[in-house]
């Protein structure tokens, strides 16, 4: 797809979309990156408000970015009731189109409550790369008819959102790994100074303590660096 259209009918080139994604991926924090995706959606997708739902461990769901509180409430109602187009989009590879929410009977618990929030129509689009990531939710305040171009634009924005979301997850995992490594290094330093150990010996002590207590190594390192001690550490260090 070479071009898409904004909600005012103007042409938005693929290059502009790519530039929007590039800017989103260079944001300093994941929150800023996902917020940039929301701005992109509001600028070119068929919607008045937008949100991003993320699928977490244990099939948990969370709204990680949204244009306003109303759509956050609409999302959360779906999570609580366990029904709604957003949930269907998360767990099913596809696009869920709701042109007149008040007349739609697919979600009998959620729809009346969302209608009461002022939601008239929406598109919910599955987000994925090599695995399911969540859903892009494009809300409108009034009922509307979606044409083929609307659906294509929604899919393009969702594709961009998927890439940015996957990137932020990778970045978060990278920094988490760096933080864990630094924490373990600090714990090693404490043991080296206190007991005159080599780095290798200090790491071995932390690992044995972790195994003996059935506690993650990172958690052991965090406790040692934050409190300065561990229960029965002297016993472990002398084994």
Task: Describe, in short, the structure shown.
This protein is α+β, with helices and mostly antiparallel strands. The chain contains nine helices and seven strands. It has helices at residues 14-25, 30-44, 69-81, 85-91, 110-116, 148-195, 199-213, 217-227, 233-237, and strands spanning 3-5, 11-13, 49-55, 61-66, 95-98, 121-128, 132-140.
Question: What is the secondary structure topology, with strand pairs?
Answer:
Elements: E1 3-5, E2 11-13, H1 14-25, H2 30-44, E3 49-55, E4 61-66, H3 69-81, H4 85-91, E5 95-98, H5 110-116, E6 121-128, E7 132-140, H6 148-195, H7 199-213, H8 217-227, H9 233-237
Antiparallel strand pairs: 1-2, 3-4, 3-7, 5-6, 6-7
Helix pairs in contact: 1-2, 1-6, 2-6, 6-7, 6-8, 7-8
Report on this structure.
- The protein has 239 residues and is α+β, with helices and mostly antiparallel strands.
- It has two domains: 3-174, Beta-Lactamase (2-Layer Sandwich); 176-237, Arc Repressor Mutant, subunit A, CATH 1.10.10.
- Helices cover 56% and strands 17% of the residues.
- The chain has helices spanning 14-25, 30-44, 69-81, 85-91, 110-116, 148-195, 199-213, 217-227, 233-237; strands at 3-5, 11-13, 49-55, 61-66, 95-98, 121-128, 132-140.
- The strands form two sheets. Strands 4-3-7-6-5 form a five-stranded antiparallel beta sheet, sandwiched between helices. A two-stranded antiparallel ribbon has the order 1-2.
- Strand 1 and strand 2 form a beta hairpin.
- Helix 6 packs across helix 8 (217-227).
- The longest helix has 48 residues, at 148-195.
- The chain is elongated.
- The model is unreliable at 1-13 (pLDDT under 50).
């Amino acid at each position: 797809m070479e071009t898409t259209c904004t909600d005012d009918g103007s042409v938005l080139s693929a290059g502009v979309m790519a530039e929007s994604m590039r800017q989103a991926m260079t944001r300093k924090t994941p929150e800023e990156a996902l917020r940039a995706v929301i701005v992109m959606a509001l600028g070119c997708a068929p919607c008045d408000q937008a949100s991003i739902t993320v699928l977490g461990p244990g099939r948990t769901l969370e709204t990680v970015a949204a244009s306003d509180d109303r759509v956050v409430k609409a999302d959360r109602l779906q999570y609580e009731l366990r029904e709604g187009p957003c949930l269907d989009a998360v767990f099913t590879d596809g696009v869920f189109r709701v042109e007149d929410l008040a007349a739609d009977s697919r979600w009998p618990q959620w729809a009346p409550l969302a209608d009461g929030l002022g939601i008239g129509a929406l598109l919910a689009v599955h987000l994925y790369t090599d695995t399911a990531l969540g859903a892009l939710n494009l809300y409108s305040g009034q009922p509307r008819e979606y044409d083929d171009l609307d659906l294509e634009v929604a899919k393009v924005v969702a594709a961009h959102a998927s890439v940015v979301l996957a990137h932020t997850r990778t970045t978060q995992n990278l920094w988490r790994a760096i933080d864990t490594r630094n924490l373990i290094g600090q714990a090693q330093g404490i043991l080296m100074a206190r007991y005159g150990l080599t780095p290798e010996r200090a790491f071995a002590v932390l690992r044995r303590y972790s195994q003996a207590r059935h506690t993650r190594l990172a958690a052991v390192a965090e406790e040692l660096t934050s409190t300065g001690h561990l229960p029965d550490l002297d016993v472990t260090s002398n084994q």
